[in-house]
Amino acid sequence: MREKRSMRAPLLSGNGPLARVPPVAVFLVVVAVFAIGIIVGGATGALLLGLLAAGVAVLLAATWQVLTPGQRAGRVVVLAVLVAVAISVLMAK
């Protein structure tokens, strides 16, 4: 049976600029930006969601080498869904 991972432990090892940022804070910021993008809608909402997608793409590119194929696939799916949501928000108004 696998041991439970600590919620305070970093997801990936390293000492980059995001290593000291608490994962809960990042999660809350991402949820807030996503919610604001959906609520605002139109070009402004799509821009916020696009910026969020760009951040996800940069993080995916930076961590690609240390991810397993399953993790890569999951993150690419999340990125694709985020881009699709941004496009639908843009086209909604």
Describe this structure in words.
The chain has 93 residues and is mainly alpha-helical. It has three helices and no strands. The mean pLDDT is 88. Helix 1 runs antiparallel to helix 2. The radius of gyration is 15 Å and the shape is globular. It has a domain of 52 residues.
Identify the notable features of this structure and list them briefly.
about 90 residues, globular
Share of β-strand residues: under 5%
Number of helices: 3
Distance N to C terminus = 50 Å
Count of beta strands: 0
Structural class based on helices, strands and sheet pairing: mainly alpha
The parts where pLDDT drops under 50 for at least 5 residues are none
- How helix-rich are the residues, as a percent range? 55-70%
Largest sheet report: none
Computed Rg: 15 Å
Succession of helices and strands: HHH
Overall 3D shape: globular
Average the pLDDT over all residues and give the rounded result.
88
